[in-house]
Amino acid sequence: MPVARRETCDGRVIAHVDMDCFYVQVEQRKQPSLRGLPTAVVQYNSYKGGGLIAVSYEARKSGVKRSMRGDEAKEACPQIQLVQVPVARGKANLNTYRNAGSEGRCERASIDEVYLDLTDAAQTMLMETPPESVEHVQEEVLKSHVLGLQIEDEDDAKEEVRKWLCKSDASYQDKLLACGAFIVADLRMQVLKETEFTCSAGVAHNKMLAKLASAMNKPAQQTVVPQSSVEGLLEYFPIKKMKQLGGKLGTSLQSDLGVNTVGDLLQFSEDKLQQRYGINTGTWLWNIARGISGEEVEGRLLPKSHGSGKTFPGPQALKTIGSVQHWLNELCEELSERLDSDMDQNKRIAHTLTLHARAYKTGDSDSHKKFPSKSCPLRYGTTKIQEDALTLFLAGLRDFLSFYNFKTHGNENNNWGITALSVSASKIVPIPSGTHSIAKYFSERFPSGSSSNQSVDDVIDEVAPSSPSAGSDNCLGVIPSELQLEYPEEDTGVNHSKACLDHQDLLCNLSEKVDGLTEESSHVALPGNEDRMTRNEPYRDLLSKEPRLAFNASSLKAVEKKKAAGKKPHGNSSIIKFFNNYHNSQSSFEQKNVTNAQGVKIPLLHGSQSASGSNLTSNQVEMASEIHQLEEIDANNSGCSIDTMPQGSQAWSYNIDEIDPSIIDELPPEIQEELRTWLRPRKRPNVVKRGSSITQYFRPDKGR
DNA sequence: ACGGATGATACT
DNA sequence: TAGTATCAT
Fold first, then answer.
1. Quick one: CA torsion of A399, A403, A409, A411, rounded to 10 degrees?
2. What are the Cα distances from residue A443, in Å, to A408, A447, A448, A654?
3. Where does the UmuC domain start and stop, copy by copy (predicted)?
């Protein structure tokens, strides 16, 4: 059982940088008189003074906590300054912070956090300007906290830190960390200079430790975790404060295993943990107990999805489809704007629209989370998104009601309420420009009329990001015209125009629609082949026609704005250049990588999307069957998709597992990287096997 | 049935 | 895959 395992040959340098109470800083920058005052940002304030989502450190001293109510905060800290989150379309809008979060040159993991892999930068620095040779060390670096470093006299702290950072006989790994500290200190100063925001950072050999460290000394400080301090750091560290263990898993560790600190975990064998929590989670737990985490820094610069949502708690629950439609329209409008911005700024398009809702059924205490989420191909344009979202909602409602054996007697709805709505856009891929690197690489080398290469190039060069269709057909069928009217609001406290429709009539009408959907579903459930072929025709058209680039008005405006806006210059200090060099190469590689890895997929998705747009004109097409058909199309196409190659596709006649890693070095750099992403260790099937190959122990990371 | 809005990811 | 569940800030 106890198998010799490498200790921690993790020579990486990872930094976690975290903006200090970010939303507060954004507001303080906007309103500098707030600086230094106890301040918090609240969203909404009608109910108990709103909910706090960010709290300044001055206010924290008075005991104010995030997710307190505004009223409670006032109680704890009467002088507190409360700033409201901007409201647009009747809901909190976080664009201010989203935009501020894009400032500077940092990779963005979340709105206010980044992980950086500084290994290369630190190595370079160590070779070219090792800390021990630096004559004058920046003040900021000297303020670093180094875990495990004994500080006898607070006045000597900086001198102690300087000695550690510049120690000539330190281990190689410690030296790398020291370089990381220099780089991060400089980076933080750059961030401050360019954005006026302070941040805190942790520097360690992996993400988990860096994350822990960044939170240890806030605000505006940084903490280094030498390997020698890891054991002591984790021994008494509360298990629930570890990332990923703040929820049910952490609770289970406490109550089922009696594990309250990370150190407590050490007594459990990997097998034991695997048997209780599965092979992946078990190994992951075993590793984090030892400060081991192989999780790589994702180079991703941009979010993978966009969403807009709102809750309607308690008495505000939506009780009519009309009110649901109203709010869906608002949410979709915001989403649509953000998608347009993303397209303009990042040249990407989203391919899937998903609707989530929470609902309750009166009398059924357990019924409130079961509202099914639904998704469909995303068509650009506010109106289309609104239509599709409503249709998705209706489909969900139908399932919800039938699941609970709901009978629509009459027009009254005393049975259900919607307590949360959200729409989101995902599967965001770059708009193809130029040629896919792999396709290009192979077609240059093996020029052939091979249909696959040909079609890839054609589609990539010609596919249109969006198509303005005059009709309102969607993939789900046509939204009944009466649904497009404005409906009276129920009890959300919002006043919009009272339509002159009879409420009862309306409800009746809508009930019929929902019922209609139910009936259709059994009847269209199994689409035939013929149908699918018909739907593929527009796909062919798309390939042969001129590109139809369609940008709506707001897109154009945004493009103009972007052109007008000059780029902010940023000076380079001597140290930051190591980071810049690293970062620039990383990010350009990342761009290519995204395009490469995902660009191929576009023609397939576009095929099904455009196919669904034109031929189906029947009035109430059942959604489930549509989705089913789309799946079929995808399934058919994916057989020859490059996406499937890493799984060992016949088409390429190479098994990914048989590739000799050394040959990769011979390939062009961008292709090397692409292949490497495919070669990264895949997660093990979630089955516990005993006495299996020793090779499993060579993968101490990627637990989860 | 007020911890909201917004993401990411893993499981199935 | 689409849909669900969990986790985080």
1. -40
2. 60, 5, 7, 17
3. 14-246
Both tokens assigned to A444: 């240059």
Which nucleotide lies at the shortest CA–C1' distance from A113?
A: C9
In this predicted model, what pLDDT tens digit does every residue of A321-368 receive, in sequence order?
999 999 999 999 999 999 999 999 999 999 999 999 999 887 766 666
A47: nt with nearest C1' to CA? B2
Catalytic residue selected from A27, A58, A107, A113? A113
CA angle in degrees (0–180, nearest 5) for A161-A162-A166: 120
Looking at residue A654, its pLDDT comes to 35
Domain residues of chain A, as ranges?
A: 19-94, 306-431+478-525
Nucleotides of B under 7 A from a protein CB: 1-12
Distance separating alpha carbons of residues A130 and A169, to the nearest angstrom: 12
d(CA A417, CA A413): 9
User: Which of helix, strand or coil describes residue A429?
Assistant: strand
Q: Strand C: which nucleotides have any atom within 7 A of a protein Cβ?
A: 1-9
Strand C neighbors by CB, 7 A: A 110, 112-113, 211, 242-250, 352, 354, 369-370, 372-375, 624, 627, 630-631, 634
pLDDT of residue A686: 65
A412 is catalytic: no
Residue A409: predicted pLDDT: 57
A104 touches strand B (CB under 7 A): no
Query: Would you say residue A672 has pLDDT above 60?
Result: no
Return the amino acid letter for A80. Answer: I
User: Residue type at A161?
Assistant: V
Cross-sheet strand order for the sheet of A14-19: A113-117, A14-19, A199-204, A222-224, A145-146
pLDDT in tens, A431-463: 987 644 445 444 443 333 333 333 222 332 223
Both tokens assigned to A73: 């905060």
Looking at CATH, the fold of the domain delimited by A19-94 is given as MutS, DNA mismatch repair protein, domain I (3.40.1170)
- Specify whether the CB–CB gap between A93 and A334 falls below 8 A: yes
Tokens found for residue A505: 């009539």
Nearest to A578 by CA among A204, A16, A193, A116: A116
Query: Are the folds of A19-94 and A306-431+478-525 the same?
Result: no
DSSP structural state of residue A477: B
Q: From the Cβ of A246, is strand B under 7 Å away?
A: no
